[in-house]
Design brief:
By secondary structure, the protein is of the alpha+beta class. Helix content is about 15%, strand content about 25%. It is built from 19 helices and 36 strands. The strands form eight sheets. Strands 1, 2, 3, 4, 5, 6, 7, 10, 11, 12, 13, 14 and 15 form a 13-stranded mixed beta sheet that branches. Strands 18, 19, 20, 24 and 25 form a five-stranded antiparallel beta sheet that branches. Strand 24 and strand 25 form a beta hairpin. Helix 15 packs parallel to helix 16. InterPro entries: Cyt_c-like_dom (IPR009056), Decahaem_cyt-c_OmcA/MtrC (IPR020014), Mtrc-MtrF-like_dom_II/IV (IPR054337), Multihaem_cyt_sf (IPR036280).
Length: about 775
């Protein structure tokens, strides 16, 4: 108690002392006057609003670059400098500055006039490669790089702290930057572009594909942008026709595994990139023009090499006509003007210019490319003429068959047979065909003729004579006044209702006119523009006739109804050039001719099994194909046939198919992306109708003498895993499959659209997005 009392007294004394001190001015504890305000501090930099920059993207195409000629000095012998801005797309689709780049590579090439007498008149020169300094130059945050087991100096890249997404690069090492070529022509057209590395998605994974800038074509001396370099004769659009489209780039080039453009490829694939002696001996060529010619002709290397070379180039089959130069050269006439031996040898592999062997009947020795134009610069030996460029389209109406009438008579009532008589106007070389003309002499195959079939109320067709011509235009036919007439007996049941009439005839042509394919003795003639191996298809507009009532209404075939068609014939021709080319001696140019054989009511197939390459050979070196157990097809509907062939689910009964699967079920031979429906189908096509069935209205497919449902039959044509589990899934969705095919074509609609219609979670538009 005493201790606490003393502490209290001490506290009171201390409080009194403090109070007396505070009141020393006599104002009894009032506040003093405010002091002088201090100097305000410097305001901090406001933080960037959320979402104003991005450091990751969903795909390579979501990164773009802004580069101006005034901001770069990458040519000649001056001081290297570069400035660019990177932009990225946010998950919400907004384009904002892209931050955090740590490595890019720079490419610089120049158009150079070639005066050597060999090679293309204009050539691309890679300014690093021509100095032996690689093909590009790296820029990193440290000024050094380590890539593919190599290390070295790089330009030093810095992101502007005050302007996110803006980067500058300088060369801080001794000597000139690798892409600075002191012998460069600064008044020539230059191409510059970049590639960014280590770009990630939101989950930290590297985005697939190369992250490339657009190309900057300009003249360094003036900074002027160049719209036409005079050298880009193949555009990316031409390549996309076969290789597919991915964000405006080529979707599939097997050698590089991602998208590229021919305008970029020439950065490395140019005359400065020469193969080694060993590679030359094997047939390797790296210069873009000759290399692409050889690849597409299947001649890039010696036959059947092993290893990587064979895997990439050994067995390529071009889907169109090699001689149709404008299939790829769709940007100018350089294919006619730039004549040099190395490019020609891509296809003409049997020509030896040093000895003259194979070079015309005179065995001309060619010592330099300057001589090429002496013969091939113009006239009958020019590329356009000797390659018949564009002639199929130009000659389309040289042989035209236009059905006029289709009538039925009953010569012997009660015998169950009636006679169909068909007349057609035939025009050859712009004039009615003359009386007495032997049409067989002009035809590449004399078994072709008039295609005729029934059309039911749903627009489904059934050919009168199966997969052959219904009525001949040669045997038994009469010609009078340009009108061909012929007759044939069919059953009473066949000659009712609406029938379609068209034709498939292929003829020979030369110098812009239909000509005979063989002489009077039957010997095939040679030297034709379109001979027995490359015939010209007839034009045969589809015609409809009501056999019950000539004046009555007719039914339109479903494959002639635009509202029921999802395929795009123009896209097929974009890769194949023309349907005639891919169908041998068949004179077809349109699907309405194909439908005669390839329809849902032709219940048999010439290619019923599926075979794959086992990767082994027999004692004679022939490749061995094996059959996939239990996987068969018993119909030839166009949908299924086209899906099967292009997805490699075909047989090797007649010959090794152009597209096939190997022992690992990997697709070989198809130039595009196999699940890219838009490669053949119309853009934004709707495959399912409102009732869940197909847009085409097809509800049953004949297999043998019974019927299956069409959706599962179409799907399994591509999905080679059509095993028991897949079939069980099809059947759970209401599909009728071959093992339990129905005797009636009146089948229920499958439930596939419930999950797989466009817009659904597992819709074909999502599952097949390339």
């Amino acid at each position: 108690m005493m201790k606490n009392y003393n502490n209290s007294l001490m506290a009171m004394a201390l409080f009194s002392a403090l109070t007396l001190s505070a009141c020393g001015d006599g104002k009894d504890g009032q506040d003093g006057a405010p002091g002088t305000p201090g100097t305000p501090g410097t305001p901090g930099t406001p933080g960037a609003p959320a979402g104003s920059t991005v450091s990751y993207v969903d795909s390579a195409a979501d990164v773009t670059f802004e580069i101006q000629p005034a901001d770069i000095n990458v040519a000649g012998g001056g001081t290297f400098a570069i400035k660019f801005k990177a932009m990225g797309k946010t998950p919400q689709g907004k384009t904002v500055p892209f931050t955090g780049l740590d490595m890019v590579s720079l490419y610089s090439i120049t158009v150079k006039e070639n005066t050597s007498g060999d090679g293309a008149p204009l050539q691309w020169v890679n300014n690093a490669m021509t100095q032996g300094l690689g093909s590009s130059m790296y820029c990193t945050l440290t000024g050094t790089y380590s890539s593919r087991g190599r290390t070295g100096n790089a330009c030093t890249m810095v992101e502007d702290a005050n302007e996110p997404g803006t980067y500058t690069g300088t060369w801080t090492h001794a000597g000139a930057a690798p892409i600075m070529n002191p012998n460069d022509d600064l008044n020539a057209t230059h191409r510059f572009f970049m590639r960014a590395y280590n770009v990630k998605d939101s989950e930290g994974n590297s985005v697939s594909g190369k992250v490339l800038s657009d190309r900057l074509d300009f003249v360094p001396a003036t900074g002027e942008l160049v719209a036409d370099t005079g050298k880009d004769t193949v555009t990316v659009e031409a390549c996309i026709n076969c290789h597919g489209n991915k964000d405006g780039h080529i979707a599939k080039i097997r050698a590089h595994g991602n998208y590229e453009n021919p305008e970029n490829c020439i950065t490395c694939h140019n005359p400065d990139n020469q193969p080694s002696e060993e590679q030359l001996a094997e047939g390797w060529v790296f210069d873009f023009g000759p290399m692409v010619h050889r690849i597409h002709a299947g001649h890039h290397i010696s036959d059947y090499l092993s290893g990587e070379a064979k895997e990439y180039f050994g067995e390529i089959g071009f889907p169109g006509e090699l001689r149709e130069c404008t299939s790829c050269h769709n940007n100018g006439d350089s294919w006619e003007q730039n004549l040099y031996r190395e490019a020609c040898k891509g296809c003409h592999i049997n020509v030896n210019f040093e000895t003259g062997e194979g070079h015309s009947e005179f065995s001309l020795v060619q010592t330099s490319d300057t001589q090429c134009k002496n013969c091939h610069g113009a006239g009958g030996l020019s590329p356009a003429v000797v390659h018949n460029v564009g002639k199929r389209a130009e000659y389309a109406d040289l042989f035209k068959i236009e059905a006029q009438t289709a009538t039925v008579t009953d010569p012997t009532p009660g015998d169950g047979m009636k006679t169909l008589t068909v007349s057609a106007k035939i025009t050859m070389n712009g004039a009615p065909v003359a009386d007495g003309t032997v049409l067989a002499d002009y035809m590449t195959s004399t078994t072709r003729g008039m295609l005729i079939g029934n059309i039911d109320a749903n627009g489904s067709v059934t050919a009168l004579n199966g997969t052959s011509a219904a009525i001949s235009i040669t045997s038994g036919a009469t010609l009078a006044g340009g009108i061909l007439t012929n007759s044939k007996e069919f059953t009473d049941a066949q000659l009712t209702g609406t029938v379609y009439v068209t034709a498939e005839v292929q003829v020979c042509a030369d110098k812009g006119a239909v000509v005979k394919c063989r002489d009077g003795a039957g010997t095939a003639l040679e030297g034709l523009e379109f001979g027995a191996d490359h015939g010209l298809a007839n034009s045969a507009p589809l015609a409809y006739f009501n056999l019950d009532d000539p004046a009555g209404a007719t039914v339109v075939a479903r494959m002639d109804d635009p509202s029921r068609i999802t395929i795009d014939e123009a896209k097929c021709n974009g890769c194949h050039q023309n349907l005639t080319h891919i169908k041998g001696t068949h004179g077809v140019t349109e699907f309405t001719q194909c439908m005669n054989c390839h329809n849902e009511n032709t219940g048999r197939s010439f290619h019923s099994t599926v075979q794959y390459d086992t990767g082994t050979v027999d004692v004679d070196g022939n490749r061995i194909f094996a059959t996939v157990p239990g996987l068969t097809f018993g119909q030839r509907d166009l949908v299924t046939v086209a899906h099967r062939f292009h997805s490699g689910n075909w047989d090797a009964g007649r010959s090794i198919p152009a597209i096939y699967r190997d022992k690992d079920m990997k697709l070989n031979g198809f130039p595009g992306v196999e699940n890219d429906c838009s490669a053949c189908h119309q853009d934004n096509a709707k495959f399912f109708a409102a009732d869940g069935g197909l847009t085409s209205g097809k509800r049953a497919v004949l297999v043998g003498s019974n019927y299956v449902t069409p959706v599962a039959e179409a799907c399994r044509a591509c999905h080679e895993h059509s095993d028991d589990a897949a079939l069980a899934h099809f059947k759970s969705m209401g599909a009728i499959v071959a093992s339990d095919a129905a005797t009636s074509k009146d089948l229920p609609v499958e439930s596939c659209a419930t999950c797989h219609a466009e817009g659904k979670e597992f819709g074909v538009d999502k599952m097949h997005a390339n």
